[in-house]
Fold this sequence. Notes:
By secondary structure, this protein is α/β, with parallel strands linked by helices.
Amino acid sequence: MKKVLIAEDESAIREIIAITLKRAGYEVTEACDGQEAIDIYNSKNGTFDVVLLDIMMPNVDGLEVCKTLRNQSSTVGIIMLTAKTQEMDKVSGLLMGADDYITKPFSPSELMARVDSVYRRVAMNTQTPVQPVKADKIIIEPFELNMRNRTLYKNNVLIELTQVEFQIVEFFFANHGKALSRTDILKEVWGESYFGDEKVVDVNIRRLRMKIEDEPSIPKHLVTVWGMGYKWL
Length: 233
């Protein structure tokens, strides 16, 4: 069963989300604030596939919950629920490890498209491959990408990546030296059906640079190709 945790303090919105997800075949657990979400997540030993977090919640807000859950798991899918006026909070959520965000108000079809997209990535990254991986490792000095273990090393030091970050790096390594547009990256990582903001790519690139670059403000490995997108050198 596909398991989702919803943390939303407005009961009417939470109920609509829960009904929509249940109709689509998800097993839903609800929390009315951030602390309850953390408590439920821990009590279930983190066995959720996707977590939906409203940013503005009492006790512990959604950003802090996102940070807490991401520190515990690199694989759980996290989607932030934001208001149109919370532009900076969207960026903050992505920088803290969220996979995506949905702006209120949203339609049931948009909700399901986003949740399904994140769930597919989670499932793909947690299932044991039926066929052996063609190449266990891709080495682009000083980095080593291990395809089987889904890990990235720099100078033999492990770099902790979320599932989204790993997929982005994997795409760049498979296209080493090529300029990839935001659209290319969105389609590869978020899927053909994704219709969210391209900004999600920029924020993830920024987050990756903070992890892989010696000086993130002056990147040497993951560079910007002005007018086109990004490439890995």
